[in-house]
Every structure is written in structure tokens, then in C-alpha cells.
Specification:
23% of the residues lie in helices and 27% in strands. The strands form two sheets. The chain has a three-stranded antiparallel β-sheet with strand order 1-4-5, with no helix packed on it. Strands 2-3-6 form a three-stranded antiparallel β-sheet, with no helix packed on it.
Length: 108
């Protein structure tokens, strides 16, 4: 900070106020920083949208593999699968794992 500006601030407000201080003398300080959690809000918004699409759970699916163009596979083990056939929408949720795709070719 420029010394001339700092001197003007000290002259205007007095020596008790430091320019980096946000409040005045005796201002209340926070005891802890508040962390906002938006994950539950996003999840509830997603559930409301899925309810509008009228999705139904599909039971007894043990695993789901999504093959990508860059030779990787997104693998879901024991996923929760929901579908809405009129909307052509499938929802796969659960713990995902990304793997490299390997091909085994067997010749006789």
C-alpha cells in the first residue's frame, strides 16, 4: 500500500484503525467460517426432476458398463438403475470406477 494513502487514512480515521481491518474498533469477529452445503439441494432438485419424468426403478441389475471413445470404461458395481421409457431416459447412480479398456483376442 502506498505510504501517502496510508498516512491519509491514519489522519482521517485515527491510529486505532488498520486499513486491512474490515470493521471498526470493537467490531464483532466471526468465531468460525460457515461452510454452505449445496449438495443436498442439488440432489433434491434432481429427485424432483426425475419424479416429473415418472421414472421407475429397475431391480436386479448387478453391474453397468459405459464404454467411451477414448478406450476407457465407466464401471458401476451394484448400481441403482431407473428408467422412463416414454421419455427415453435412463438414470444410473452409484459408486463409479473408471478403467482402461483391454481386449483379449484368442485365436486357435
Amino acid at each position: 500500500m502506498d505510504p501517502a494513502i496510508k498516512a491519509k487514512l491514519k489522519e482521517k480515521f485515527g491510529s486505532s484503525v488498520v486499513p486491512s481491518q474490515t470493521g471498526g474498533k470493537g467490531s464483532v469477529r466471526r468465531k468460525k467460517k460457515v461452510v454452505r452445503k449445496t449438495g443436498t439441494q442439488d440432489d433434491s432438485r434432481l429427485q424432483m426432476t426425475l419424479k416429473k419424468l415418472n421414472v421407475n426403478a429397475i431391480p436386479a441389475i448387478e453391474e453397468v458398463n459405459l464404454f467411451k471413445d477414448d478406450s476407457t470404461v465407466i464401471h458401476f458395481k451394484n448400481p441403482k438403475v431407473q428408467a422412463s421409457l416414454p421419455a427415453h431416459t435412463y438414470v444410473v447412480s452409484g459408486q463409479a470406477e473408471t478403467k482402461r479398456r483391454t481386449w483379449f483376442v484368442c485365436c486357435d
